[in-house]
Amino acid sequence: MEFDARAHGATWRWPLLLSVVFLNISLPSLVYAYGVILVHLEELQVPIWLGLSTPTIYVLVYNLTQCWCREAADSWGGSVGYRVMATVGLMMVVASLLICAFIPFHVQPFVYGILGGLGSSIISAQVDAVVFDTYDSRLGIIRGVCFAGQAVGQSIFPHIITALIDGYGYSFSYIVLGGIMLQTLPAIMLLRVDESVSRPISFSRYSDLSKTYAVFSNEGMDKNYYTTELQLHDMSKKCWQSPSDDNLHRDPEHGGDYEYDGDMATITPPPSPEEKRRNIFGVEILPEIPEESEESDVEEYAKDVDNSKNKKRLSVAIKRLSTLGDSFDDCISKQKRRDSESDLEGSEQREYSEVEVTYENISPVTDIQREKIFNSFSFRCQSAYASMKRRIWMPSYRVYTIRRRFTYLMYNINDTFVKPLTRSLSSWKFYPSLMLYFSRLSLTSVAMVSLTKIASEMHPKISMSDSNFLMTLYGFTWICFLLSTPWLAQTPKRNFKYVALAGLVVSAVGCFVLAEADNHDSFSIGCVIAGFGYGAISCCWETAVQDFVGTRKWPKFHSSLETISGTLLAIFVVGISFIVDQERGLQFAMLILGIILSGITLVWFLICITYLYLTKLRTMRIGKPWAT
């Protein structure tokens, strides 16, 4: 009931929503619109496979670092942490663009791919954390709005990049583009979670841990919350001498002074846990009243005798301690310093002084130990040199810290990559999920990036302005599918696999159309079909995989899906790099991608048919409707 009330009464927080949409318009669009840069790189005698590797490296670094950035976002949270980390990510993206303006063309893919991918991963983790904590009751709608922002950016940025290259040249356009990216800093400053809004404990990314923590911290336990656990009190406000002056149960609006005031009244303390309890249904459990017997008087008398004996033992122990203290004082007063009498004669003629230290309390008495204290400048220099040499060649604590940090890093890598990978590879559901995620990444970094270059190979050749318009048409078709976001938000998760299957079918058809296109009309039809299919896959793949693998296994599979899918994408791009430099090589790569998507479509078609049989056909009876 509390969650439903929050869903209807929570505010939209329009400044935060606009900032999130603006970030989704600006940052991912550098990858979506990279096809424009790919065309200009070919004019500068840069191989196509090298230009195509830039978005691949970007996506690979993004997927490899997203799991660590997500954990860092959870630990850095708060009013300042999200903005600080997002600002660091933005500085990395801007730095990558500025560096690309002054380095050779063959090095740009690695610089922009590594720095840009890492910076975008950091920003994306902060945005996802803020969106989840703020719009947890409208998460489906907000994600649809974020995807709409990415579609808008994919429609606008091809025109912006073309205008920058025509006006400033290829190299200096990176500097202006970095300045445009820097304008997202005010939007990052609005990434703040409203900590005054209390959220239900059951709705959390770590619900199991949060429920366990709530039992010990007594969170969410108010007068309308019935539980077997009792509310803990601050015992520092408890007055143990006089119950009438008890400050624990006073009205907190009056400052909590112990002195009685006319305006302040003492609230009746609630019954103790022994006197009053409630069961899980809120019904009070009456206390157990002990029965009086004749043995109670005998027990009280025995307790009084034990107390008197304990007091006598305590007084004897205090007397013994006082006697020991006096003996310690005598021992200390009889001692005198052996080095108090120093021989001052001839001290001025010596470079050093000798102090005679005699250890008379050691038995048997050995030879007199003499220690020379050097006061010369040469000795101080030699000691400093020896100390420095010892620190350099024998850094015991430093070596220990390095080993400890290396061990922590290895454990972190094991917990983040190795354990999820071994757990994921042992489950058959992981492989269809990996195929679906790979299809989304391949459509992003291969199909979408190749559109502008494929447009330049049509007969007759499509101009840059027309190809940018077709990219805008691609984004507009994407937005047309996103108009069904309110319907998807109300759709059960078990039905998202059918929408994802439809997206796979449409995307495979779009790849085949683009592979066989040879004129303006067929290429335009291919862009429309590909945009619709990409919108369906990008919006529904995550929810479909969550429902397929199960809510409990999804957190274990998530990091493995990201890392392995990015690696498979890199292997796929390396494979097609041998054919993209040939004539109509990108169209042949689109044909290969269409065949791969057809195989993935067949796998998910079998999954959907099996699910329909298990849930509908097997439970159907003659003359009765399907069981729901």
Automatic annotation (TrEMBL):
Residue ranges with Basic and acidic residues bias: 246-257
Record has Transmembrane helix as a keyword: yes
Transmembrane domains' residue ranges: 12-34, 46-64, 84-104, 110-132, 144-165, 171-191, 430-449, 469-489, 496-517, 523-541, 561-580, 586-614
Keyword terms of this UniProt record: Membrane, Transmembrane, Transmembrane helix
Top-level division of the source organism's lineage: Eukaryota
GO molecular function: monocarboxylic acid transmembrane transporter activity
Region spans: Disordered: 241-277
Xref: CDD domains: MFS
Transmembrane is among the record's keywords: yes
UniProt protein name: Uncharacterized protein LOC113508485
Species of provenance: Trichoplusia ni (Cabbage looper)
Lineage: Eukaryota, Metazoa, Ecdysozoa, Arthropoda, Hexapoda
Gene: LOC113508485
